Amino acid sequence: MSERKRIYLQPIPVRIWHWSNAFGIITLILTGAQIRFPESITIFPSYKSAIQVHNVAGLIVAVSFTLWFFYYKMVRNTLDKLYIPTEEDLKHGLARQLAFYCFWYFLGKPSPYHATPDSKFNPMQKSAYLAVMFVLVPLVALTGILLMNVTPLRVLILMSGGIKIIDALHFLLACSLLAFLCTHVYLATLGKTPLAYIKPMVTGWEDEPEHEEESAEEATTPGYRPVRHYPEYSGLPQEKRP
Ligand code: HEM
Questions:
Q1: Which of 45, 85, 142, 208 could tie 126 with a disulfide, CB 3.0–4.6 Å?
Q2: Residue list, ligand 1 pocket, CB within 6 Å
Q3: Under CATH, domain 2-210 is a member of which superfamily?
């Protein structure tokens, strides 16, 4: 018997955080590019205005990051569970998901991972989001704060290797964020339709794909999309059941 369900995947605080963060990061990248290459890039009216907008966007990202952390850690207490890959994710899940993105997707096969509110991310998303939210964003913010306050934070800057090192680090971290953003937006369009994954980030709700009735064990295993549904995955190790 086939059924069609909707699941509430993205609560309002996550959606507010996500889009204000995306807006802030994109603004930071555009203004940052003008600050770094003022002769070639003139998106904003002047160098000074690019710096002012850059600082405001930095503040938006810092506030939305705090909202994100507070919501997942204090309100939901699901930060570790959602964002930290399991041993099984690292051993087999990453390879399986990579095989899907690089190969099976182009043959029209469905993703081997099935999102649920308790386990929203596939192993590749978990690893990428962990690196972005726990390393890239905090470090780019930290180096930015040092660059914004060179005189008062002079001692800290000298202890970290000097202004040139901090500046180079800030630039390289920002380039990594840009690389993440391009990959993230591309992968976000690989649902059943190009907007299938983006819609839940706007409305909160995801339409579950039509599928045969699941066994009781499968239905109670969060985030587990049985590999046996897809014979082409059978060569890859199956996800361990709890
Ligand atoms: C126009 C830009 C962006 C688009 C279209 C976009 C799209 C999406 C979509 C569709 C999702 C839900 C599917 C999924 O979990 O992968 C998502 C989640 C996520 N995005 Fe983005 N994104 C954008 C920018 C960003 C930026 C700039 C960052 C961070 C620097 C970011 C970080 C994340 C994170 C951490 C999640 C998981 C959120 C959660 O459910 O806890 N995104 N994004």
A1: 85
A2: 10, 14, 18, 21-22, 25, 120-121, 125, 129, 132-133, 137, 177, 181, 184-185, 188, 197-198, 201
A3: Transmembrane di-heme cytochromes, Chain C (1.20.950.20)
